[in-house]
Amino acid sequence: MSLWGTLTGKKSSSTSSTSSSPSYPSSTPSQDNAPTTSFQSTPFDPTTAQDVTSFLGNASLPDPSQLHPLAGLNHQTLDYLSLDESALSDLPGSRSALPSRGWSDDLQYGTGVTYLSALTLGGSYGMIEGLRRTPASAPPKIRLNSVLNSITRRGPFLGNSAGIIAMVYNGINSTIGYYRGKHDSANSVVAGALSGMLFKSTRGLRPMMISGGIVAGVAGVWTVMRKTLF
After folding, report:
1. d(Cα 201, Cα 187) in Å, to the nearest integer?
2. How do residues 23-70 score in pLDDT, each as one tens digit?
3. From the CB of residue 185, how many other CB atoms can be counted at a distance below 10 Å?
4. Do the beta carbons of residue 155 and residue 128 sit within 8 Å?
5. CA distance 190 to 213
6. Contact criterion met (CB below 8 Å) for 167 and 111
């Protein structure tokens, strides 16, 4: 040791730092602690893969039919899905090939059929009238205009008039059948006469009788056709 080292204490400090440093175990594994297990990757087998049916089965999803508002209902118990025979009119003479559940059915079907028939008949008459009134030498536009005017004048007038008479006729016919307890030809003829007279009641007695006779005759023909054809 030199004099300078003795005075400065250089060797002693290095010795103390060496002695004060901690000792760590060696990171080199020993032969006894070496792992003995080896891992190997296995090849992928496509046949063992799971498809979508494994998580979309019946156990995980609800039944779609149970989500409908009418699920579980018996359609035989719903009146608006089927024409129940017990709901038909039980009056004598009301059962035929044209089933009826009362005056409401007769009012709707009778009025609708009568209106459409009269509208078609009036339109056909108006078309013929328009063709006759226009000379053959007239331009096509004038002939077409005349035909359309006649159709729109005759068709709606006859259809509306027949529809009003049919509404009154069905109401009177159902009322007479309710009080008499049966439906027959007499009910239809009387209801037709009263309906025609009421339709022309503001025109005087003579127009009332003529209108009543015409409607009563049409009602009589209808009852005969219904018995013969239906």
Report:
1. 21
2. 545 545 555 555 566 666 777 777 776 666 665 555 555 666 666 666
3. 15
4. no
5. 10
6. yes
